[in-house]
Design a protein that fits this description.
The chain is an alpha+beta fold. It contains eight helices and twelve strands. About 40% of the residues lie in helices and about 25% in strands. It has a four-stranded antiparallel beta sheet. The mean pLDDT is about 90.
Length: about 230
């Protein structure tokens, strides 16, 4: 076995989606996998194109977005290390439903279609994990629809900030810079409106800016979701 094969296999073993595979199945999957690096701003898969691979993000961040006929973009999700995308198109053989674009330099594992579908047919536990992942995305889509329908722009911004934050002691912190334009594309508002809302949240003490684009969220920001 080559070193690249063993490295691919070692990574796949750590991915929850493939945790139930046998050593032989991991070998088979690793043989159909390749690691790739893409710079910031690169389109990994394009909406409407045929599907060929399942991708797993090893490092970096990427956004999932769709565009209408006029070129208006809507961000559906942000992806981080360990997350997979592209499985829906591999399952139903339909064209890609959205584009995935890197927001910083990213490393990916690409698994070819035949290897993935073969493992799906052989391993019931893996098939169940794929189903759980799809259900999770459906629930997240339901929450996004509810947010857009029921909350005002302050509530929508607060929802995004909370979704991208993580607990640190008694506070919630956003560690990675979240550009105003990206927030605007997630909530269906203009960048200018998002900037005004963010300034208002800062003045009223709901958020505290830190260096390098980081943010501290105060607990009372949750009041905007009620």
């Amino acid at each position: 076995m080559s070193m690249a094969h063993e490295q691919n296999k070692a990574f796949l073993r750590r991915v929850p989606l493939f945790s139930s595979l046998s050593e032989a199945q991991l070998d088979q999957l690793a043989a159909g996998s390749v690691r790739r690096n893409f710079p910031k701003g690169r389109t990994i898969v394009a909406e409407g194109e045929p599907s060929a691979s399942l991708y797993i993000l090893l490092s970096g961040r990427a956004k999932v977005q769709r565009s209408d006929a006029e070129g208006k973009e809507v961000i559906l999700a942000m992806l981080g290390p360990g997350e997979a995308f592209g499985e829906m198109s591999l399952i139903d053989d339909a064209p890609r439903s959205a584009s995935v674009i890197t927001v910083e330099s990213c490393d990916f594992m690409a698994i070819n279609k035949d290897s993935f579908k073969s493992m799906l047919a052989q391993n019931q536990e893996m098939a169940m994990e794929v189903m759980k992942g799809l259900v999770k995305r459906l629930r997240e889509a339901d929450k996004k629809i509810e947010t857009l329908a029921l909350l005002d722009v302050y509530g929508r911004v607060a929802r995004v900030l909370l979704d991208f934050s993580e607990e640190q002691g008694e506070e919630r912190i956003i560690r990675n810079k979240l550009p105003r334009q990206e927030i605007a594309k997630m909530i269906g508002a203009s960048r200018e409106m998002v900037s005004r809302v963010m300034k208002g949240l800062e003045i009223d003490g709901y958020i505290v800016p830190l260096p390098e684009g980081k943010l501290v969220l105060r607990e009372k920001i949750s009041s905007y979701l009620n």
